[in-house]
Amino acid sequence: MTLDAAQWLDSAAIDPAVVALRPDYRALLITAEGLRPGPSDEFSEGMLAAAESTARELLGDGPAEQHPHIAAWREAFRAFGAKPQRTRPSAEALLRRAPAGLPRVDRLTDIYNAISVAHVLPLGGEDLDHYAGPARLVRATGDETFETTAGGEAVVEHPAPGEVVWRDDAGVTCRRWNWRQCTRTRLTHTTTRAMFVLDALGPLDDAALTAAGEALATALTDGCPGVRIHSRQVTGASEAVAG
């Protein structure tokens, strides 16, 4: 059964245990329908090249972790037992690669990676048609399944107890908050309906989070004319902002 994107956004939630860990966390969730997937192209290449230039201006010769938002994410990872030197927040991992060139993956992934780098925030994309039930950000029990690959082979892992993970009814969709996405819901060359998660901690205020979301929506609209977009900011509290 095809998920209704707007209704699906309304069901997304952040568990109180995550709020207790980082009360300053907010997630901006965006759904996009009518996307044009496929391999990297001139449009996505232009976005990545611009993001590489922006990264050089933002960081200069300094390390990525000196940026206040990246530093906050490293603290958040340590708070649930992860070692950011080994499993880096996704935005830091991309910023570290920017001087030598960001990866070219596919046009949809390239678009959101470019926004992640330009706005210095973790940003992930998932295939909405492969989701099972609502998205929830929780602290894992350790029994959940996570579908991934190792050595080119499909494997099933389990998160560490207490690890912060995104999950649906079928299992974990992203481990360690924003470190690694599962294979089941990853974007592919056939993805036409997707959801994007933009992660913010204290140093990135709501205005900057909104600006990043608007930049993503504009890029998706420019790259996929006719796309339909919905958004919702989730805080873990009772209030949320929809758009």
TrEMBL record:
Signal peptide span: none
Domain annotation B3/B4 tRNA-binding: ranges: 71-225
Pfam families, alphabetized: B3_4
SMART domains associated with the record: B3_4
The protein's name in its UniProt record: B3/4 domain-containing protein
Species, as recorded: Streptomyces cuspidosporus
Lineage, top ranks: Bacteria, Bacillati, Actinomycetota, Actinomycetes, Kitasatosporales
